[in-house]
Amino acid sequence: MQNTGGKTALGLDNNIGAMLCYVANLVCYLGLIYSIIVLVTDKENKLPRFHAMQSITLFATSLVLFIPGYLISIALVMMQSSITSLLATLVWLVLMLIGIAMFVFMVISAIKAYNGEVYKIPVIGNLADKWSN
Predict the structure, then answer these.
(1) CA 91 to the chain's CA centroid
(2) pLDDT at 44 (0 to 100)
(3) What is the DSSP letter of 5?
(4) Is 59 part of a structural domain of the chain?
(5) Which pLDDT belongs to residue 5?
């Protein structure tokens, strides 16, 4: 689907509105807030709605992965043995790799959204597509 024409309910071009769902995530929770606003106000434009839902799903996935991961890592460090410290380091490395992958997916999605394309992030893209309709 390529749909760069038209305006969102907020008065932005469809592609700009869709791209902002990801770019605004770089500024704390602004992307989450903006994406929720897009979902609530823009009932007709599929491009911004899809990218808003995918951005929210990506944010929720990061919370589900990172909060328990950090808690597990902290608990392992507090046990103060060499094996648990090694495990904590491995947990941190996995979390860093996941974080880098999520950032890359966010950048790719922002570029594709700006070009008016639907880019489905593996696993969450199909969910976002279903939930945004």
Answers:
(1) 21
(2) 83
(3) -
(4) yes
(5) 64
